[in-house]
Amino acid sequence: MIRFRSSSIRSLSPEMKCTVRLLDDSEISCHIQRETKGQFLIDHICNYYSLLEKDYFGIRYVDPEKQRHWLEPNKSIFKQMKSHPPYTMCFRVKFYPHEPLKIKEELTRYLLYLQIKRDIFHGRLLCSFSDAAYLGACIVQAELGDYDPDEHPENYISDFKIFPKQSQKLEKKIAEMHKNEFRGQSPAVSEFNLLLKAYSLETYGVDPHPCKDSTGTTTFLGFTAAGFVVFQGNKRIHLLKWCDVYKLKFEGKTFYVFGAQKEKKAVLSFHTSTPAACKHLWKCGVENQAFYKYAKSSQIKTMSSSKIFFKGSRFRYSGKVAKEVVEASSKIQREPPEVHRTSITQSRSSPSLNKQLIINMEPLQPLLPSPCEEEEVPLDEGIQLPKEDEISVPVTSSSPVKDTGENVDLAIEHEEKMKEEPLTISELVYNPSASLLPTPVDDEIDMLFDTCPRAENEKDDTDSFEELEADENAFLIAEEEELKEARRALRWSYDFLMGNIEVNAFVKSFSRLLLVGLGLLLFVFPLLLVLLESDLQISFLHEIRQTPEFQQFHIEYYCPLRQWVACKINFIRDMLGSF
């Protein structure tokens, strides 16, 4: 068992046990001290794997309030953990590679493959039915090898839990592709094909943070190599590229994203469940922006959560950026280390362990109305529900299913009645190319008036067609002029409100600075009076009085000022006495 010791005098402090769960659910235990920093633990795990491309990975832990955190490498582990030892953490992919083709070593690709497999299993990687079958076939080929009718029974896919909700239709499609399309592929090739397919999906690398937008709608925020993304249900509704995001901020439970799109400013606000969740979201955004946006780590600046002086959290990403990691990978020259793969049956842990691993990690799910809401919310205002023959119906048991006559028909009929939310969304409902909606900007102010209904003509039927047409044209012209005036008034109000927001922020910052200055003055002024006028023989006061600088200030400035003030007071007193 490894023990990390510090070179300081306090190295004799008690040791604490720390257990790290790896991507295949195996565990490594070690003993740490109070001064041991997070980087030592990360290096220990990477040395265990003989991993050189380690900047993509990190260690995650969950505090007693069920809030997730990434272990900061430059801080003491003991100071970061809010629970009592022994500590339990997880080794995970922190930054998903922007281009899997540029990963140099097979070992790194295998660890990324394990992370993608976990994302699929926990419902964080959304895909269509055909993509789900392809991903499942890649996993089966990598774990089992070529199809062998002597070793693999008819429903052998049912033995493996690849997706959280797995239908017989999906299992048959996976088995068909495994038999016919993946024969001859080595585990490394199958794993690489899975990475390429996962990289093409919208939710690749998305670690969903549940929150609510300004309208109270449940949304999931994520950070990818492309930028900041927002999902509602299974659809991506916002994408701000990192080059267009110029500030991330949080205040309490509210998270702000300041960006620009089409040369216009946009401010998005979201509300989390707790202030700790909001701070974690902010730190994840700062780290991902620094990792993917900058060309050199020397360009990274310390970020503050607020503009207000002497207030707010400050945080700086201290690792390498993506370009530096790719450059370092290209310079690796060594014999590739041996990859010890774990079979799919061995890598699955008990239900209790899986429950612990996904604490506070809600998967992206389609927004399907509950039975009590179906009568209140019309279908045309929500997300289109998939047809029953287009979704993969979940199978609740992981044991093999025998395809025999009436039992299969009854099982399928029972599953169709359950209508559970599927993981695999049909291609008609979830189309990646059609799911991107633009971030709302100022243009929507103009769009408010694009669909104004035309007023009906209220003239008598005895009027001629020419008179009706002339009146209608005049009315439309007048209405258009009114709409233009309304647009100008609304745009002026919008600009005025945005200006007030900036002014209010400046006034708040200035007022806080003024209060801090007054507080310091109220503290310093009495101290000066005690030093200059009192005869208190306190050691530190006596030492200050004996300094040359203080004596010079007392003789050259304070004494003349006191005499001048005394003269003025006596003069005013004499003037008042004469009256």
From TrEMBL:
Compositional bias per record (Polar residues), positions renumbered to this chain: 342-351
Chief location: membrane
Membrane-crossing segments per the record: 513-532
SUPFAM superfamilies hit by this protein: PH domain-like, Second domain of FERM, Ubiquitin-like
Molecular function GO labels: cytoskeletal protein binding
Subcellular location: Membrane
Membrane topology: Single-pass membrane protein
Domain FERM: 16-296
SMART domains linked to this entry: B41, FA, FERM_C
GO-annotated biological processes: actomyosin structure organization
Classification via InterPro entries: Band_41_domain, Ez/rad/moesin-like, FA, FERM/acyl-CoA-bd_prot_sf, FERM_2, FERM_central, FERM_CS, FERM_domain
Residue spans of biased composition, Basic and acidic residues class: 332-341
Region (Disordered): 332-351
Keywords from the UniProt entry: Membrane, Transmembrane, Transmembrane helix
Listed GO CC annotations: cytoskeleton; membrane
Pfam families membership: FA (PF08736), FERM_C (PF09380), FERM_M (PF00373), FERM_N (PF09379)
Protein's UniProt keywords contain Kinase: no
Protein name: FERM domain-containing protein 3
Gene expressing this chain: FRMD3
